[in-house]
Amino acid sequence: MSGKAAIDPRVLVSRERVLTATLDLLTETGLGELTIDDISRRSGVAKTTIYRHWANRSALVIDACSRMTDGQEAPPDTGSLEGDLRAILADIADLLGTARWSSILPSIVDAAEHDPEFAGIHSRIQHGHAAPLRAALDRAALRGQIPPAADRNAIAAALLGPLFYRRWFSREQIDAEFMEMIIRNALAVLHRDPRNPKRKQAAK
């Protein structure tokens, strides 16, 4: 025995219902109109029980949104950087197309501007998006497919930025042709990188 009291399964069930209801309502209405009363009605869990586990609405929303950063899978290894980038960008495009992500993330971005705790959640989500790209770029550097000194954070931003722009600003379709263009442009920048020793040697 670990010495810790076992958690009542009913508590786990009620917490799960509350967190699920919170994410569902955030998807439907956004953060601005979300209330504990709404969450209580949707989940069927009494407000007194909700406040027993979360001190206020912000604490509950942060807990629920933190689940959006969980379960990050290992980045694909197709054997080539281009193949890895295609697979990763396709996964992110699918994620951005879901109702939950497209509805909730703007609310988190807005709240992050004036709430440090939400800023932390936003940072975790963005880190989760960029992590597979960074891992693929790190692997490519070890394989000699890109220069070791390449700015991998900048390359990841160049790959992700156009996806976010199309999703929330131009609202154009994120299709395979668009993602191929993003990848070509990012790799072209790598080849033009002045820190690329192979490029310097070729210029001599």
Biggest pleated sheet: none
- Beta content comes to under 5%
Count of DSSP E strands? 0
Number of helices: 10
The ordered string of helix (H) and strand (E) elements is: HHHHHHHHHH
Rg value: 21 Å
Regarding quaternary structure, how should these chains be classified? single chain
Which stretches are low in confidence, meaning pLDDT under 50 for 5 or more residues running? 199-204
Shape: elongated
Helix content: over 70%
Mean pLDDT, rounded to whole units?
86
Query: Whole-Å distance between the termini?
Result: 70 Å
Specify the structural class.
mainly alpha
Plain-language structure description:
With 204 residues, the protein is mainly α. The protein has ten helices and no strands. The protein has helices spanning 9-29, 36-43, 47-53, 57-66, 81-96, 99-112, 116-142, 152-170, 176-192, 197-203. α5 packs parallel to α8 and α7 (116-142) packs across α8. The longest helix has 27 residues, at 116-142.
Topology record:
Layout: H1 9-29, H2 36-43, H3 47-53, H4 57-66, H5 81-96, H6 99-112, H7 116-142, H8 152-170, H9 176-192, H10 197-203
Helix pairs in contact: 1-2, 1-4, 1-6, 5-7, 5-8, 5-9, 6-7, 7-8, 8-9
Which structural traits does this protein have?
single chain; 204 residues; mainly alpha; 10 helices; 0% strand; disordered C terminus
